[in-house]
Amino acid sequence: MSVKPDIEVDLKDILIILKKGLPILIFIPLLCMIITGYVNLNYLPPVYQASTTLMVSNIYTFDDKQYMRYEDLLVANQLAKTYSQIAKSRSVCEQVIAKNGLEMSPESFSTKISVQALNNTQLISLNITDSDPVLAARLANETAMVFMEKVTRIMQFNNVKIIDFATIPSKPIEPNARQNVLSAGILGLLLAVVLVFVRQFLKQTFENTEEAEQLLEIPVLASIPVIKNSKNSPEE
Asked: Which of 18-32, 56-70, 119-133 has the highest mean pLDDT?
């Protein structure tokens, strides 16, 4: 003999519950989106990113044409990973800080730097983030120049060249207000759905006889109607 669960909820019941909680399902996501948008526009500072592209290679010239040997390309790919660490080194950060008169520690400045060795190429992308777009571009180019000097002094050969200098970024990369507002709306909707179902299952009363019969699995013998007092009824 199978035992029936105390409460069985089908798709129709779920739709009814969601329909009853429609005001909550609208209000909470909308409130989350408004608050998130306001915070993004008024309290989160914009962050700009400027990028300098460098190339690690040994170029040979023959008959006024430039060539690169295959083994040099393989070495360049390995050196790119090493150079990525040199670009974020303490000595490089200290020189850039001194040249630009920045009031921050080398550790703090290194958090502004992100270096990426592009896969299967001899290219390095050196990125600097800052709340000032002009300063971000200047620091990216300064860091690239100091980095090249450091590589020449340490590695004893000059095989790093700047391909593209950083330009002043026109748009911030953070905060992404549109994505943040959308995420807040989705999270708010999930919260609202949970709240609607919790409120429904914690409810201690039945709204009609059909709901009582369905949940209790017994017939309803009688119901007591709600009698509202008339405003014109005489006082006792």
From this structure: 18-32
116-172 pLDDT, tens per residue?
877 667 778 899 999 999 999 999 999 999 988 888 887 666 777 888 999 999 999
Residue found under tokens 């507002």: 181
Question: Three-state SS for 60?
Answer: strand
Strand partners, 47: 174
Do 143 and 124 share a domain, yes or no?
Answer: yes
Query: Residue 63: helix, strand or coil by DSSP?
Result: coil
Cα-atom radius of gyration of the chain, to the nearest Å?
33
Residue 129: the pLDDT is 94
Mean pLDDT of 81-99: 86
Domain hosting 25: range is: 11-41+176-215
Catalogue the long-range contacts made by 29-34 (C-beta closer than 8 Å, 24 or more residues apart).
29/184, 29/185, 29/186, 29/188, 29/189, 29/192, 30/185, 30/188, 31/188, 32/184, 32/185, 32/187, 32/188, 32/191, 33/181, 33/182, 33/184, 33/185, 33/188
pLDDT value at residue 49: 95
Q: Hey, how many other C-beta atoms are within 10 angstroms of the C-beta on 123?
A: 19
**How many structural domains does the chain have?**
2
Are residue 152 and residue 203 in the same domain, yes or no?
no
